[in-house]
Amino acid sequence: MADVLVLGSGFAGLWAALAAARRIDELGASGVDVTVVSSQPYHDIRVRNYEPDLTDCRIPLSDVLDPAGVAHVAADVTAIDPAAHTVTTSVGERRYDRLVVALGSAVAIPDIPGLREFGFDVDTYDGAMTLQAHLDGLSARSTVVVVGAGLTGIETACELAGRFRVVLVDRNPRVGSDMGESARPVIERALAANGVETRCGAGVVAVDRDTATLSTGEVVTASTVVWCAGMRASGVTASLGVPLDPLGRVAVDDYLRVSGLDGVFAAGDVAAARMDDEHLSVMSCQHGRPMGRYAGYNAVSDLLTAPMLPLRIPWYVTVLDLGPWGAVYTEGWGRTVVATGADAKATKNTINRERIYPPRTGSRADLLAAAAPDLQSRPTAEG
Ligand SMILES: Cc1cc2nc3c(=O)[nH]c(=O)nc-3n(C[C@H](O)[C@H](O)[C@H](O)COP(=O)(O)OP(=O)(O)OC[C@H]3O[C@@H](n4cnc5c(N)ncnc54)[C@H](O)[C@@H]3O)c2cc1C
After folding, report:
1. For the FAD/NAD(P)-binding domain, which residue ranges apply (predicted)?
2. What is the pLDDT of residue 381?
């Protein structure tokens, strides 16, 4: 018996596991088990955590893994020993023949007085639900401070602006500093139309139950601070003993193999893969899902000495939700705006509600078909 172990059940992990099951089928192999190890028995649609209704954002893994014959172990992974081919978890040690590391990332919460005690985030389903329960107890006149005017912070601020006074704080001189010259004016227009106040060139230096103190000295009366600044790959990558990039990611080759290690693949936010000759993967579900599919396919191919497939993705888009105003859709690494407002919002809705979901028919054939190592075409204005 041989074991393919997939760590994580997010956008990379789920698709790695299904792709591994598919490749075993395709090669007509027997005696290879695929097992997912992740903290909770769910596939979370993490990208929707800023939305107000999360009822359809948590998919039981049994619905999507059982039909494909993939096992799940609910456990926290604490370390990987690539020399011994073992993984340490909260329920014991597991041996692997091939490993796919897909443990994702987490928002980095800095050591700001009061932030851990009183702050909120939309990083995980549980975090987003805790925030929503807190918001449900607030009056509409309350102020919410959102920290970090990157993609997650902008989406969160725009969504909350319909319900509360929202103050968006960022250390950079302007909002959406990564979004480029073409999209930034659109974002600024949408924030203004949504009534979001901005404080640029400022950080939050202290938080308590009722206030957020900014580095400018301003004290904002707010019982809610939502931290959306800075992502970091899972700390478990450190146990691999290979160099990490500034985001904590391991380098992988075109086959998603962790450089310098035998039998270890990585996908999603824990891995930096080359998307084309100039660009590395971005921490995103856009890249995480195909990385997962190729990692799962290649892990089994490598195990069974079958040909592997290289991954390169020739397109890059960003579709940013701007709340009631709509959305902005950009193409290319320079993020050129191609659609705004309601048109872009329709695309965003299709992505968030259909495109990134696994089939939920309970059919093995549907799940394995969706796990093919093909690149989805870029979303269109129609979705
Ligand atoms: C609010 C928000 C909005 C976003 N919007 C977009 C967007 O519009 N477009 C886009 O492309 N990306 C977006 N992202 C980023 C996207 O969600 C991530 O890049 C994506 O989830 C990465 O997929 P992943 O599988 O690598 O990690 P994740 O989806 O985070 O999955 C990690 C998995 O590993 C498990 N895990 C983690 N640590 C352990 C451990 N120690 N032991 C066991 N299990 C563990 C988790 O439970 C989970 O199952 C957004 C993120 C957020 C928070």
Report:
1. 3-286
2. 56
For 96, the domain range is: 2-106+231-314
Q: Which ligand 1 atom lies nearest to the CA of residue 76?
A: 42
Residue nearest to atom 2 of ligand 1 (CA): 47
Q: Is 307 helix (H, G, I), strand (E, B) or coil?
A: coil
Percent of the chain at pLDDT > 90 equals 95
- Give the CA count within 13 Å in the CB-facing half-sphere of 295: 39
Number of domains comprising the chain: 2
Query: Which residues of the chain have a pLDDT value below 50?
Result: none
User: Can you give the pLDDT at residue 178?
Assistant: 83
**Which pLDDT score is estimated for 376?**
81
Question: What is the crossing angle of helices 151-160 and 180-194, to 10°?
Answer: 20
In the structure, which protein residues have their CB atom closer than 6 angstroms to any atom of ligand 1?
8-13, 38-40, 46-47, 49-50, 76-77, 102-105, 122-123, 152, 234, 236, 268-269, 283-286, 288
Cα–Cα distance measured from residue 37 to residue 33, given in angstroms and rounded to the nearest whole number: 13
What is the domain-level CATH number for residue 64? 3.50.50.60
Q: Which residue among 287, 314, 341 closes a domain? A: 314
Distance of CA 301 to the CA centre of its chain: 26
pLDDT digits over 112-121, tens only? 999 999 999 9
Could you tell me if 161 and 262 lie in one domain?
A: no
Last residue of a domain, one of 254, 280, 314: 314
**Is residue 235 domain-shared with residue 102, that is, in the same domain?**
yes
